[in-house]
Amino acid sequence: MNELNISEKIPKQIRKWTCHKLECFADYIEAYTRTLDNNKCCYLELYAGCGNCICKGTDCVIEDSALRALRTKTKFDKYMFVVTDHQNARSLKRLSTPHDTANTVEIITGNCINEKVIQQVFDLIPRSASSLALIDPPGYRKLRWSTIKKLAAHGKDWKGHKMELLIIFPLEMALLRNLTRPECEASITRLYGNRKWQEIKQNKLVGKIGLGKARQRLAELYKAGLKGLGYRHITDFKPSRFSKPPVYHIILASDSDSRAKILEEAWGKERYLPCELLYSRKDRP
Length: 285
Ligand SMILES: C[S@@+](CC[C@H](N)C(=O)[O-])C[C@H]1O[C@@H](n2cnc3c(N)ncnc32)[C@H](O)[C@@H]1O
What we know:
This protein has helices at about 15-35, 65-70, 85-95, 115-125, 145-155, 175-180, 185-190, 195-205, 210-230, 260-270; strands spanning about 10-15, 40-45, 50-55, 60-65, 80-85, 105-110, 130-135, 165-170, 235, 250-255. With about 280 residues, it is an alpha/beta fold. The chain has a domain at about 10-170 and about 230-270: Rossmann fold. The radius of gyration is 19 Å and the shape is globular. The relative contact order is 0.14. S-adenosylmethionine (SAM) binds near residues 88, 111, 112 and 136.
């Protein structure tokens, strides 16, 4: 836990489930980097935050996913963070600088669905390098299939693998609640890149399926889209702690067969949070 620096913008407030997600992610990224050997690999985060966040109720200040990715024992060759505004960029720059001893961190300010912003990212990835992208949008409206398609089509590494995508899929109540609202049609179609989701909506409307089935089918449809992009392995994991049904699904698209196990170990493990008595930092770098 860090001291909160009140002289600057208060970090984003988060709930316990987000803290849990960040703890799981720290384990995932640590285990992931251990598999890299000497292969060149770049880390990309599309919806990066300001570097830290504050837990609602406990005022516990914790590092966000960007800082956790920078902390692994084995390092990526390059880190690219797309942040939406200058304030977040300045904060992330300040917090990431102590970790950037090899000058490998790039902070790009802009809207990550913007063509030019994505191109800026692609220009930074060396040819034939592997890459992993964390895609953690603040709700389904901010995520577009066109962005996912671009990432998948960017190019292959020397093993013939596409960019790996770790998607925090926002299958939260908002998507389900808005499923039948005409004014949300366009944003849901942009999320999926097609209108097949409307069949799920229709089945839900006429009572053919319930909420649970609709949720499951919405996740399945997204995974089918990723499969259609040519990924060999699509893994879906539902974190169960703090919210049932889960606020999000983690969907991993990869051409490597070793990642699913890492994902299940990181997100499936029983764990304590930094605000809990039995929390131990012994596994953290
Ligand atoms: C759910 S948070 C994820 C933050 C980070 N991955 C974490 O868990 O610590 C979503 C972040 O996306 C940023 N954001 C929102 N719209 C964006 C956009 N169009 N492009 C880039 N970032 C965006 C927000 O500022 C917010 O920090």
